[in-house]
Amino acid sequence: MSPTSTTSSATSSSSGSNSTTSSWLMQGPLAGAAIAASAGAYAVISALRSARFRSQVIGIIPARFASSRFQGKPLVPILGKPMIQRTWERAKLATTLNKLVVATDDERIAEICQGFGADVIMTSESCQNGTERCNEALQYLRKKFDIVVNIQGDEPLLEPEIIDGVVKALQASPDAVFSTAVTSLKPEDASDPNRVKCVMDAHGYAIYFSRGLIPYNKSGSVNPQYPYLLHLGIQSYDAQFLKIYPELPPTPLQLEEDLEQLKVLENGYKMKVIKVDHDAHGVDTPEDVNKIESLMRERNLS
Questions:
Q1: How buried is residue 81: exposed, middle or buried, by Cβ count under 10 Å (0-12/13-18/19+)?
Q2: Which residues sit opposite 205 in a β-bridge?
Q3: How many angstroms separate the first and last alpha carbons of the chain?
Q4: How far apart are alpha carbons 280 and 116 in whole angstroms?
């Protein structure tokens, strides 16, 4: 299935004298990549500061069938509807989105999504993560967008207000190329590597993300008085930056933690973070389905 058949809007050096000191910091290709990334970051941020208000916003729900942790996750039933449909219906309620599409490499997902009325863009199987899939989908669209919102398909209870919040945060932060949301971390999720933690600075910019508990104190235990933060599966990007992202080489922290947002930070870009009240979380394992369905029954959500 080609992109045009699935959605009406788709179309086709210097070296220092002290080499001993510098050699252990960065060597060869790593140094070149870091310098290039730094130059790219400066160019993009400079352009953003002088650019017009980023008003045109598209929401993209990346979805793939293959998953090492949960095969076929987008199509798992949540109280009778495929999970990706639940996410799409919630995202449709956001007021800041000018358009919403699903990006997938799987015909089964595409067929289901078209059945409930979603626009679908077929993307390649080679996409390494949701960010790359969003970037590829963006290339097929005729209309130009300023902001791309990556809406994870495994967040069936995501509030549309959170989508609007991350969009507005990026619009209000011309020095940032990325925005995302966090909420309070439940103590029982502190040691769960599927619950990604975040720390940010006093101005609301991300410092680091980890699958481990951060910050980590000397006692090695959870501090019940500390406001730990849980990263939610939604993020928005400046469209200019999204074109650059796939060209940035993988970074050590990104590879070690298996978290794509670390490549953004490690390459010197700024990421705005908003804190929201959100007591549900995404579906990472089959066991999470029952938790989501129980929450929906409690809230009388059909």
A1: middle
A2: 272
A3: 32
A4: 24
Of 112, 102, 107, 114, give the one whose Cα is nearest residue 82.
112
H/E run at residue 34: helix 28-50
User: Residue 266: CA atoms inside 13 Å, Cβ hemisphere, count?
Assistant: 20
Nearest Cα to Cα of residue 140 among 84, 64, 40, 60: 60
Which residue's entry shows tokens 């389905």?
289
Distance CA 90, CA 301 (A): 12
Hey, what amino acid is at 4? T
Structure confidence by residue, pLDDT tens digits, 129-163: 888 899 999 999 988 999 999 998 888 888 999 99
What is the three-class DSSP state of 50? helix
| pLDDT tens digits, 251-301 | 999 999 999 899 999 999 999 999 999 877 678 788 888 889 998 898 888
Residue with tokens 């509030």: 159
Distance CA 191, CA 219 (A): 15
The full length of the chain comes to 302
- What is the distance between the alpha carbons of residues 216 and 191, in angstroms, rounded to a whole number? 11
pLDDT tens, residue by residue, 61-113: 999 887 666 778 889 999 999 999 999 999 999 999 999 999 999 999 999 99
Assess contact for 87 and 96: CB atoms under 8 A.
no
CATH 3.40.50.300 fits 30-290, yes or no: no
pLDDT at residue number 28: 41
CA distances from 50 to 37, 44, 54, 81, 174 (A): 20, 10, 11, 45, 9
| Count of beta carbons in the 10 Å neighbourhood of residue 288 | 18
Asked if 185 contacts 175 with a C-beta cutoff of 8 angstroms, the reply is: no
pTM above 0.70, yes or no: yes
Cα dist from 218 to 127, 151, 214, 276, whole Å: 40, 36, 12, 28
